[in-house]
Design a protein that fits this description.
Distance between the termini: 27 Å
Oligomer: single chain
Structural class: alpha/beta
Number of domains: 2
Number of strands: 11
CATH architecture of the largest domain: 3-Layer(aba) Sandwich
CATH topology of the largest domain: Rossmann fold
Order of helices and strands: EHEHEHHEEHEHEHEHEEHEHH
CATH superfamily of the largest domain: NAD(P)-binding Rossmann-like Domain
Number of helices: 11
Largest sheet: 6 strands, parallel
Helix content: 40-55%
Strand content: 15-25%
Amino acid sequence: MRLHHAISPKTRPFAVLGHPISHSLSPLMHNANFRALCMDAVYLAFDVEPKHLIATLQTMWRLGFGGVNITVPLKETAFAGIKRLDISARRMGAVNTVSFDSRGMIGYNTDGDGFVLALHEEFGIHLSGRSLFILGSGGAGRAVAIAAASQKATRIVLSDIDPKRSERLARELCCMFRRCSVATAPPEENAWRRASLAADITVQATPVGMKPGDKSLLPSDAFRPGQIAFDLVYMYPKTAFLNAASHAGARTANGLGMLLHQGAKAFEIWTGRSAAVNVMRRSLEKAVYGGGKKAR
């Protein structure tokens, strides 16, 4: 990460916390945003184990941090440990954005907004009337599911390697959104294949794919032409999941757009200002695709 201004005692720090964190592109886009807006601020990344998260956030508050993002696997830990929660975090059951005031921490969740905006930007569609299969029911998968249901998706099928997690989320969705049909699929390849083929949109919301050698959890015959396949992993132009979907004729997108829009929303929460979204976008696309522009 290169900074184009001198760090001084007046520089306002921001950060992202995760475990691991070396994959994160958040510092890249936020520092580009700070430069574009001529802000004396810097955005850093810290590897924090779940057991140390709340103590770390308390220290950051005391040190005067302007705001913090939370990524895997800390979102649910943050939700459990932060007392003051915005309605967005309470609804999602996870925190991905933390702001500070004179009383301490406030937890938010911008993942759902990020997903909805990215999907519309990438494919020009809305979620109303759509069916989804969401593989992974952790913090990010939960945010996607709740965002889809709130946008009037007609059917959502959930699955997770831990069936209890997807079943718990399904129960909550049924209580929150009576008009959305919600079901679960067992963690078996054939069940995943059937659920994916039946869906308009298949979302890969697990950490699988973050490592270059990771294999797709779904084979190519789990997809069909015209279907949308969305992988929340954003570090690579195409994951094995997206390659499998493309091979079957599905339309694909990685999680870069979701990262962008959830980050811009977090910046607005911290500062009350609009982010330089196009500057943030160019910095991300240059890092992932090269040349500064996504190949479409």
